[in-house]
Amino acid sequence: MLKVLGQALFSTGIQNPKFTEEKKAQDYEVRTYHATKWVSTSVNGMEWDTATRTGFRRLFDYIQGNNENKVKVPMTAPVTCLVQPGAGPACESTFTVSFYVPEEHQAAPPQPSDPQVFLDDRKEFTVYVRTYGGFANEQMKREECLKLLESLQRDGVPYTDSPFYTAGYDSPMKLTNRRNEVWVLKKTE
């Protein structure tokens, strides 16, 4: 009980995917995430926050035992959202919300029962990361992503502006010292 309470209030004891920090710049860092398995779901829509909440609920059901083994899977961080913007300002975007599969299930994650939930084998990838605090909403995420893109342009580094990720590390119960990130993929040669 104390462990669960500590995780909810302080985000302690929660597994994170492993990465290698390549370097730190003035206002962002460069990370290479190792190949890992994630559980994901995609939601199409125009409202970022609504799509993220829908995806989170599906994945939360999965870790609570809505999977073929009926096994509870520990919560991990971050919760990522891969954003694939639509073709225009009034077009639907695709939001793929993902939970990192904890180490004890990496070799053989439980298969999802919900047909809208799938296992995702992420190959190694490198991202530019901007970290910020507070309760992230759609406007904050957009602003932080634009700030990161401006920094990358300033530094002349190779990046892919779409798709991009958002990442949240904290339970809604955590009120202070919150950690959020935006990730932009490094362009590969």
Walk me through this protein's architecture.
The protein has 189 residues and is α+β, with helices and mostly antiparallel strands. The chain has a single domain, classed as Multidrug-efflux Transporter 1 Regulator Bmrr, Chain A, CATH 3.20.80. It contains four helices and nine strands. It has helices at 2-10, 48-63, 103-106, 138-155, and strands at 19-24, 29-33, 36-45, 79-84, 93-100, 117-122, 125-132, 159-168, 180-186. The longest helix has 18 residues, at 138-155. The chain is globular. The protein starts with a helix and ends with a strand.
Q: What's the topology here?
A:
Blueprint: H1 2-10, E1 19-24, E2 29-33, E3 36-45, H2 48-63, E4 79-84, E5 93-100, H3 103-106, E6 117-122, E7 125-132, H4 138-155, E8 159-168, E9 180-186
Antiparallel strand pairs: 1-2, 2-7, 3-5, 3-6, 4-5, 4-8, 7-9, 8-9
Tell me which oligomeric state these chains represent.
Answer: single chain
Which sequence of SSEs, written as H and E, runs from N to C?
Answer: HEEEHEEHEEHEE
Structural class: alpha+beta
What is the second-level CATH architecture? Alpha-Beta Barrel
The CATH superfamily is known as: Regulatory factor, effector binding domain
* CATH fold-level label: Multidrug-efflux Transporter 1 Regulator Bmrr, Chain A
CATH class, named Alpha Beta
